[in-house]
Amino acid sequence: MQKTFNVAASSIYPLGVYFLPEGLHISAECTKKTDCGILLFDKRNKNGIRIPFPAENRIGNVYTMLLKGYQDKECSYLFYEGEELFQDPYAYELINERKYGEDREVPARCKALCHAYDWENDKAPLIPFEDSIFYLLHVRGFTKHRSSGVRAKGTYAGIIEKIPYLTELGVTAVLLMPSYEFNEILPEEEPMRSMEQALISYKDPLPHKEDKSFRINYWGYQEGLYFLPKYAYAAQKDAVTEFKDMVKALHANGIEVMMQFYFPPTMGYLKMLVILKYWVLEYHIDGFHLMGVDIPIQSLSQDPLLADTKLLSETNCPVYHSQGQFSETYDKNRNFGHMNDSFLYDIRKFLKGDANMINRFLHLCRENPAEHGVVNYIAKQDGFRLYDLVSYDKKHNEKNGENNQDGNAYNNSWNCGIEGKTRKKSVLDLRMRQMKNALVFVMLSQGTPLLYSGDEFANSQEGNNNPYCQDNAICWIKWNQTKMGEELLAFAKDLIRFRKENPILHSKKPLRGMDYLSCGYPDISFHGQDAWRPQMENDSHSIGIMYCCRYAQTSTEADDSFLYFGINMHWQPYLFGLPQMPNEKEWGLLLATAPTEQIKETTETESGGIQKILVPPRTIVIYGTRKKQVSPDKKKGRARKRVGNE
After folding, report:
1. Are 334 and 373 a contacting pair, CB within 8 Å?
2. What stretches in the chain show pLDDT beneath 70?
3. Burial 84-119, CB ≥16 within 10 A → b, else e
């Protein structure tokens, strides 16, 4: 061996395999402390040659060496300990011939990073939390279905083909489910775990059975090679370039790219930090949703390099200095946000008509701390999709192979009268109304809304609320939309556009319910059958919310318009009294979750011209102010009066 390779000492860090001017640097963690090294493949050693680590080049469990003068950039490698071969956890490239779902006994070989990429003029969109609209998707499932209409189905390139759709929808960021390199093959005899279980336990390496029977870990909430994009999600062999092409294309269209990472409890803070920094620098990633137990989100979010990077946590854990105060950098950049599961569960309860939810709803729709972001959603990858939320009372996970014992049994769902598929028009109409109501709650609450891909056009998982092992049409997005899906999609686009056009609905600062501008109206106020008198009793299911847009002034010209939301989640109609406006303004209907002909408007002239609206059951209406319209008869009367005076 010494005649072939000139082995010398090298620095312990960085870990991994790198080309240096003087040769190939190799550094790895080995636990056995004997018979460990690198299995190197190159033109002269096509079957691989073992090069052991010199025993003297060890500190703790870290071994290192330098192959002096070695510069074969096409080489590949694995590490070995005894007879066991394993991949470099710090690898930056792979030689991967395996397709998604194919098992293999020998792991894919790693490559030393020597990859040049032209980012051209790529710039991060840097969209604040309050102006963001997140879109959660699974790279494979997003375009894998034959109805997706893309050439490169189930890949990063497939997402590029869907950029026109994303821009038309109006989302500002895609949040990718785990897209780092992980092994999706899981042995059949091992108990399968949901994402929640993955967050509270460490996944040991799983041995394969001799008969090679396995299932798919479709979601990917497990350990993996954290410095690599998942190769099986690439249309081409070069996953690194394809992933970067995707990021660059999304950025060029004003869309940020964020990623979910699952970190086990055994992973230290420093390695997490190295991983996140690498993805920011090498792949231009804009944010991360960090999943696991005891993630050190405080320390991570205060790193200077991540000041402009969104960091999402599973829990509400604001970032503090040791003095107990928010840092100036953090206040300015507001880079921390938490995933608001409370919104998901409590808004579902309010949606289906549970009692004692009005006060909780008002808190959630206003929640918008100045110190950090809040991400609101009513459906995500684990649990019912939006369509299934209004179509199933019970989970239907039989196809997961666990006798329907997996998944959350309590989903706060309501099937609108019939379980599952139906052709009954009254039930379908109610489901449509409920889905529109849910989208209104998500899109028009303060904070950052998140859509789960496909929910905007009523995609279904057939009642499966835990399809972690389903790489098929249950999880794949079905793009051949039904008439219902087309209607819901048009409504979702209108809502997103409406949110963007009205800054008061996504304020950077919390709304206070006070008239601190001395303009005669508070920033937000609540109403009931009579204006300014909301019904807040435990059995109330209806509330009126008015926004004064002057408080969201974004230019030198003040916005003197108003918005009013009449929210009726009761199963009976509800009569709202609209607040009176200045003489030159009147209310006009903008959006409704029920057909507009079902909404009855009246004006009580004997009460000073107070406008009343009768809102149908389980319906939300949105009114805005406009310049008062003068009827033709009144115009003629005024003209006659002027003539008479003359």
Report:
1. yes
2. 1-3, 32-33, 187-214, 317-333, 553-558, 605-609, 630-646
3. eeebbbbbbbbebeeebeeeeeeebbbbbbeeeeee
- Compute the distance between CA of residue 567 and CA of residue 336 in angstroms, rounded to an integer: 31
Q: Sign of torsion, CA 470 473 477 483?
A: negative
The residues with which 66 forms a beta bridge, in sequence order, are 8, 25
Q: For residue 347, give the DSSP letter.
A: H
DSSP 8-state secondary structure symbol assigned to residue 207: P
d(CA 497, CA 505): 12
Tell me how far apart the alpha carbons of residues 97 and 288 are, in angstroms, rounded to a whole number. Answer: 29
Pick from 190, 215, 211, 214: nearest CA to 201: 190
CA distance 314 to 295: 9
Give yes or no for a contact between 618 and 568, defined as CB atoms under 8 angstroms apart: yes
Q: How far is CA 492 from CA 66, 101, 359, 429, 448, in A?
A: 57, 34, 26, 17, 15
Q: How far is CA 269 from the centre of its chain?
A: 23
Sheet holding 610-615, edge to edge: 574-577, 610-615, 600-604
The pTM score is 0.91
Residues 6+ apart with CB under 8 A from 639: none
Distance CA 200, CA 59 (A): 32
Residue 341: Cβ within 10 Å count: 15
The percent of the chain in helix, strand and coil, each rounded to the nearest 5, is 25, 25, 50
Determine the Cα–Cα distance for residues 482 and 489; give it in Å rounded to an integer.
Answer: 10
pLDDT of residue 393: 96
Residue with tokens 């963007």: 500
Give the per-residue pLDDT at 645: 53
Give the containing element (helix H, strand E) for 176: strand 173-176
Mind listing the pLDDT tens digit for each residue in 80-118?
A: 999 899 999 999 999 988 899 988 778 999 998 777 899
Extract the runs of DSSP E, i.e. beta strands, from 72-138. 76-81, 84-86, 93-95, 109-111, 134-137
Q: What is the pLDDT of residues 312-353, one digit of tens each?
A: 998 876 544 333 344 444 345 589 999 999 999 999 999 999
Element (H, E) at 451: strand 448-452
Taking the C-alpha atoms of residue 613 and residue 59, their distance in angstroms, rounded to an integer, is 76
Mutual angle of helices 269-283 and 239-252, in 10-degree steps:
70
Distance CA 558, CA 578 (A): 23
Distances (CA, A) of 393 to 36, 301, 305: 55, 40, 46
pLDDT for the residue numbered 610: 76
Look at residue 643 in the predicted model and tell me its pLDDT: 45
* Cβ atoms 73, 92 nearer than 8 A: no
3-state helix/strand/coil string of 78-93:
EEEECCEEECCCCCCE
